[in-house]
Amino acid sequence: MNYLIGLLSVVFFILAISVIAKSMKLNKNLAEGEDESTPLDSSNNSNAYGMLIFWLLGTVAGVWSFLHSLPDFLPEAASKHGIDTDKMFWVSMAVVTFAFFATNTLLLFFAFKYRYNKNRKATFYPVNHKLELIWTVIPAVVMAILVFTGWRTWRDITSQAPSDAVVIEITGHQFGWYVRYAGNDDNQLGNQNYKLIDETNSVGIDFTDKNSFDDFTATELHIPKGKPVLLKIKAQDVLHSVYLPYQRVKMDAVPGMPTKFWFTPTISTDEMRAKLNNKDFNFKLNCTEICGRGHFGMAITVFVDEPADYKKWCAEQKPFLATNPSYLEKVPANLKAKASKYIPAEPIATDSTATAAAL
Amino acid sequence: MSTATTHAEEVHAHAHDHEHEHHEPNFIQKYIFSEDHKTIAKQYLIMGILWAFVGGSLSILFRLQLGFPEMQLDWLRPILGEWIDESGKLDKEFYLALVTMHGTIMVFFVLTAGLSGTFSNFLIPLQIGARDMASGFINMLSFWFFFLSSAVMFSSLFLETGPASGGWVIYPPLSALPQAMPGSGLGMTLWLTAMAFFIVSSLMGGINYICTIINLRTRGMTFTKMPLTIWSFFFTAILGLLSFPVLLSAALLLIFDRSFGTSFYLSEIYIQGQALPNMGGSPILYQHLFWFLGHPEVYIVLLPALGMTSEIIATNARKPIFGYRAMIGSMMGITVLAFIVWAHHMFVTGMNPFLGSVFMFLTLIIAVPSAVKAFNYITTLWKGNLIFTPAMLFSIGLVSLFISGGVTGIILGNSALDINLHDTYFVVAHFHLVMGSASFFGLMAGVYHWYPKMFGRMMNKTLGYIHFWATFVGVYCVFFPMHYTGIAGFPRRYYSFTALGNGREEAFTDLNMFISIAAILTFSAQAIFFWNFFYSIFKGKKATQNPWNSTTLEWTTPVEVGHGNWPGEIPAVYRWPYDYSKPGAESDFIPQNVPYSATPESNLPEENEEIANEKAIESLLAAQNESYNR
Ligand code: HEM
Ligand SMILES: [Cu+2]
Ligand SMILES: [Cu+2]
What is the distance in A from the centroid of ligand 1 to the CA of B288? Predict the structure, then answer.
């Protein structure tokens, strides 16, 4: 760090000194009556060399800082589409870095090379259609290729989720996430309505729908490795955005408009821990749409389990109805029998700790 | 001196008596409620500079939090009061308020009003040869609406519940529901009021710019002889005129939702233990409306900067701008395309993915005219004879920043890649370079270049050089590393990065500290400019009539430009604005008002043919004078 600050100060310092030194000379020259017919002054060459120095130091600093940050970028993508988009990202990055470097080099180098010289006259060169055509067509072609590959990937990512996808509902609120699973019996999320939300039923599960009976909620996101996962994304109050940085997943959560994103996780939490040699590593779900004072802390932990472990974990979860039998009241008469199956035989006192934690 | 200027003077000598009768304006008419475009321009400029310091200071405050999360900020309590909490930290809501106000101020108040307001007003009449704007009165109103807007926006900084805090894009429902955050209360009301005034102001300005350019060009100033600056102001005004009303309607609907119980943007909301009755609205609708302005807005900010740069680079390279017509064409292309790319800001909002594909195609098309512009600037430098005035340095800086920020647009415009990068620091890096810094450099270049015309005095060049180098190095140090945190997945509008976990915050602690230090240094370096600007108004070296040996009409006015701009007749225009270093010519520049018949030694064959038209151009004089006496 000290090294960095040092570098910065040095750059500032050198430039300031050199400019001041040159301008001192300028003032002397002025006193001796410089040619007033042009705005030229004796700093012209220093400024030209400045361009060269800037190019040199900029290149060194750019390369060094990139290499320095490289190990801290997001690790290898942990989802199928993420591997594709990462590859495309680095290819595009290479293309634009080349363009960036080449054009900046020309710019700064020309600025240096064609600095004022009183023995030379600028070339009157107002137009060259061939040249213009070339540099219109080249970017257009490069762009077309990039767009086309991008479009194909985008199309695949946003295509219909496979019918066997694990469906999970995730609801953003100020300031946290509720997760609801489709349950162990039907893999179908029951209906939900914001008017049914109360302190216990924090996502407003609708118990007139029989698909809700086996739904269970959790405070962390568990997903199976290698299986397509469909996130059904909702928001209760303001916009939020689901961001799984390691899986390269992002989709806004919009009140009144459910959104979705499906993907296939490819690396389990344990594998990632081994890869990164970090026992404490955990995948995360963050919020990337400004939502208020707690926005920056709106995160939950994501576990990518081996399919068998995922099954086991799911089996251990109790349906919402089982932990909160009082909601049996809301079930219409004709479905009561079906719903009662989920109520523990010996009615226990209403235990809402599981959902209370989710609040 | 050169033959060119002698001819220029001859043209002046032809002047007939100027038939205006003026009353000497009193102090208030002259400096406050002035209808003179030059005064209005200076008013805009000074407001813009003051706003830039406010907007910049806000960013330094939140950079302190980001760079030094552990730092005790008790010493700021005298200024910020309650916004520093008991533990000596910046309040979390206030952090968002700072970010929001910073963005709003920079985009609208500094780089729209301060840049386009200043230079469109100042340069349009001077460069096209008009005595003033089409309507001086509306022009004056335009400034005072801006002033009113500024006053309202500024006062919102002092509210107890804080100013608007939902980001500069103020997405509802966050901005619609006062219970969602305190800043969405009175602060948001003031924000919306201020922006409504602002839009009125910029519409009045824009209409004026367009009318003036279409109607008041001097004789001989055909569209294809207009300087690129004027072309850029023209396109900018069109962009503003067509897109700002859409922002106004977005804001109006938001006002209805906030105050009159409508549900344009609100649906199925449960907040603070309460289910709201609103049904059927769509937050996405707001985003479409907002970005329909929002994207053109980035070009509203950028085009004037590019236009002025064209002028400055040609002048100081002593060489015609390369590809004059391609430059106009690409600006025209950008203007049209700017209206049909807005949804690239919305790839992951849940918008139909097919729309996403369409907008990806359109977005990457707009990169082509932008690339053409960059190549043209570079080619203009090639084999030039470069004089590095501070304005020239800032212009070269602009081109560099425009490229550096522009290339990442190709990545962000790719919807598949935007999934991971959207709303991360990669975006912050991208738009600060291409829009923030590039336009800011354009503003600076413009000030240094036209200062002698504005104030009749020169700014100190040495201070200008130091200012440039400190800012150029500084801006790269601040914004370039933000790409890295972006690639590392750091979201924007985050008060702190602790919740990312896995040691990611710690990995970039140093980098964030570095960025903050660079930001503070860069910001401090602007004091050099501040001093130079205000000091030189009173004590600067007296300017000469045409200090940069430039060809455009503003330099044919006297050093102290009076009301009506030219004491005699308005000069006629015979040639394009870029006759620099023309082969055969004695001087290395030939002003636009020098007829071809006076320069047989340097005329190209097709230009000799134009000599025949000169009579016709001159004969328009009577009609032109007539139009001012109506
Ligand atoms: C002093 C120089 C500047 C610094 C250090 C700076 C820094 C920043 C940073 C770090 C953010 C992101 C904050 C966050 O997301 O938490 C930000 C946001 C922003 N900045 Fe700047 N900036 C500067 C100048 C400018 C300029 C000249 C513009 C003009 C375009 C600008 C426009 C914006 C906008 C539009 C936002 C987004 C605000 C939002 O998220 O609502 N900034 N700035
Ligand atoms: Cu959030
Ligand atoms: Cu855009």
Answer: 22
Angle B466-B472-B476 (CA atoms, 0-180°, nearest 5)? 145
The residue extents of the domains of chain A are: 1-23+42-81+94-117, 166-342
Strand duo A240-244 + A283-287: pairing: antiparallel
For residues A75 and A70, give the distance between their C-alpha atoms in angstroms, rounded to a whole number: 10
Is residue B214 within 8 A of residue B222, CB to CB? The reply is no
Percent of chain B with pLDDT strictly greater than 70: 96
Query: Which fold, B34-227?
Result: Cytochrome C Oxidase; Chain A (1.20.210)
B5: pLDDT strictly greater than 70: no
| Contact residues, B window 360-379, toward A, CB-based 8 Å cutoff | 360-361, 364-365, 367-368, 371-372, 374-379
Ligand 1: which atom is nearest the Cα of residue B492? 15
pLDDT of residue B11: 40
Residue B6 in contact with partner chain A when CB distance is under 8 A: no
Name the fold adopted by A166-342.
Immunoglobulin-like (2.60.40)
pLDDT digits (tens, 9 = 90+) for B497-538: 999 989 899 999 999 999 999 999 999 999 999 999 999 999
Q: Is B357 on the interface with A (CB under 8 A)?
A: yes
Predicted ipTM > 0.85 = yes
Which residue, among B417, B590, B601, would best test binding to A if mutated, counting the most A CBs under 10 Å from its CB? B417
- Residue B333 and residue B369 in contact, taking contact as beta carbons nearer than 8 Å: yes
CB–CB of B258/B189 below 8 Å? yes
Q: What is the structure's pLDDT at B4? A: 41
Nearest CA to ligand 1 atom 40: B167
Q: In angstroms, what separates the C-alpha of A173 from chain B's closest C-alpha?
A: 8
A283 pairs with which residues across the strands? A302
Which residues of chain B lie closer than 8 angstroms to A114, CB-CB? Answer: 317, 381-386
Alpha-carbon distance of A287 to A244, in angstroms, equals 9
Average pLDDT of the residues in B188-208? 96
User: Between residues B576 and A11, which one has the greater pLDDT?
Assistant: B576
SS (H, E, C) chain A: CHHHHHHHHHHHHHHHHHHHHHHHHHHHHHHCCCCCCCCCCCCHHHHHHHHHHHHHHHHHHHHHHHHHHHHHCCCCCCEHHHHHHHHHHHHHHHHHHHHHHHHHHHHHHHHHHCECCCCCCCCCCCCCHHHHHHHHHHHHHHHHHHHHHHHHHHHHHCCCCCCCCEEEEEEEECCEEEEEECCCCCCCCCCECHHHCCCCCCCCECCCCHHHCCCEEECCEEEECCCCEEEEEEECCCCEEEEEHHHCEEEEEEECECEEEEECECCCHHHHHHHHCCCCCCEEEEECCCCCCCHHHCCEEEEEECHHHHHHHHHHCCCHHHHCHHHHHHCCHHHHHHHHCCCCCCCCCCCCHHHHHHC
| C-alpha span between B346 and A221 (Å, rounded) | 26
The pLDDT of residue B250 is above 70:
yes
Residue A83's φ and ψ, nearest 5 degrees, are -65, -40
Interchain CB contact of B486 with A (< 8 Å): no
Count of CB pairs separated by less than 8 Å, A with B: 391
Both tokens assigned to A95: 């293309």
Q: Which residue in A308, A313, A208, A238 sits closest to B276, CA to CA?
A: A238
Least confident of B27-31, B266-270, B363-367, B374-378: B27-31
| Segment B418-444, tens digit of pLDDT | 999 999 999 999 999 999 999 999 999
CA A59 to each of CA A18, A40, A56, B322, B471: distance values in angstroms, whole numbers, following the listed order: 21, 29, 5, 28, 18
Ranges of each domain in chain B: 34-227
